[in-house]
Amino acid sequence: MKKKTALVLEGGGLRGAYTAGALSWLIDNGISFDNAYGISTGAVYLSTYLMGSKENLKYFSTNGITDKRIVGLKPLLRCGHIVDYEFLFDVIMSKELSYDISPLKDVKTDAKIGVYVLEDGKTEYLPVQEITMQELKASTSLPILGKVFESHGRHLLDGGITDMIPIEEAVNDDCENYLIITTKPGDFVRKPAKDFVVQVMKRTYPQCENISYDYKIRHLNYQKQIDMIKGLVEEKKAIYVYPSKHSKVTRLGGSKEELEALYDLGYADMENNKEAILALLK
Q1: How many CA atoms lie within 13 A of 241 on its CB side?
Q2: I need a labelling partner for 29 at 20 to 30 A (CA). Which of 86, 102, 215, 269 fits?
Q3: Could you count the other beta carbons within 10 Å of the beta carbon of residue 141?
């Protein structure tokens, strides 16, 4: 029986420019996977990669996402949120990039994106072939900073509340070989959420008892996911690609030049791991 190969993508907001560069390398090298998993920004870039659009990966991650109408005071005054995800998708992506998710219906890869379901208080994975645009928007919508999106009567947010790196879902699907791409340097350590933020979460989403607790233990879940990845690498079942250099780009901030450099770094780091990647996925 053929071993199932899996692509696993972390989120990271603007730091996802690194992922976009790495995925562009995969497109250039004609590499595909049996399974694929994306969280937060990684969900959008996964969808774009599956549709084979290198041009959209490059433009969106280094240019479109820096539009000042997306993050800050302007969106706060316009829509009541610090990040206007509807403007991001409906204007930047749909109008300027002609972004259309209908081709995902024909994707052969068993691919999923994660969303946090407020009614259930947990992250759920949706097949990309069946997702709506509302669900794709929700997959990137940060709690507190962004809007809660509704789809099929359920209220959704970014799945990164619990699963920053969707490695557990890939393992649960009995995948055997993994290419894991994250947006943090190898020495990154996630700090515990501040009590103030946890309390804000509790008051902002009173209908969901789990969300504040999930955010409180987020750093523990992240470390658990990193430990799983390291274990798979030691077993020679995974290639783990992450930024080989530190960048000034943050989740919500970065200049076009910094994002282009991060995109190029993602591409270069994949090229530097080319032999190992091809050997693993052979």
Answers
A1: 28
A2: 102
A3: 23
User: Bridge-partner residues for 110, per DSSP?
Assistant: 35
Dist CA 259 CA 254 (whole Å)? 6
214 to 192, 229, 270: CA distances (angstroms): 11, 21, 33
SS3 of the chain: the string is: CCCCEEEEECCCHHHHHHHHHHHHHHHHCCCCCCEEEEECHHHHHHHHHHCCCHHHHHHHHHCHHHCCCCECHHHHHHHCCCECHHHHHHHHHHHHCCCCCHHHHHCCCEEEEEEEECCCCEEEEEEHHHCCHHHHHHHHCCCCCCCCEEECCEEEEEHHHCCCCCHHHHHHCCCCEEEEECCCCCCCCCCCCCHHHHHHHHHHCCCCCHHHHHHHCHHHHHHHHHHHHHHHHHCCCEEEECCCCCCCCCCCCCCHHHHHHHHHHHHHHHHHCHHHHHHHHC
Asked if 62 and 116 touch (Cβ cutoff 8 Å), the reply is no
Sign of dihedral through CA atoms 210, 214, 217, 220?
positive
Per-residue pLDDT of the chain (282 residues; tens, 9 = 90+): 567 999 999 999 999 999 999 999 999 999 999 999 999 999 999 999 999 999 999 999 998 888 888 888 888 888 889 999 998 899 888 888 888 999 999 999 999 999 999 999 999 999 999 999 999 999 999 999 999 999 999 999 999 999 999 999 999 999 999 999 999 998 999 999 999 999 999 999 999 999 999 999 999 999 999 999 999 999 999 999 999 999 999 998 999 999 999 999 999 999 999 999 999 887
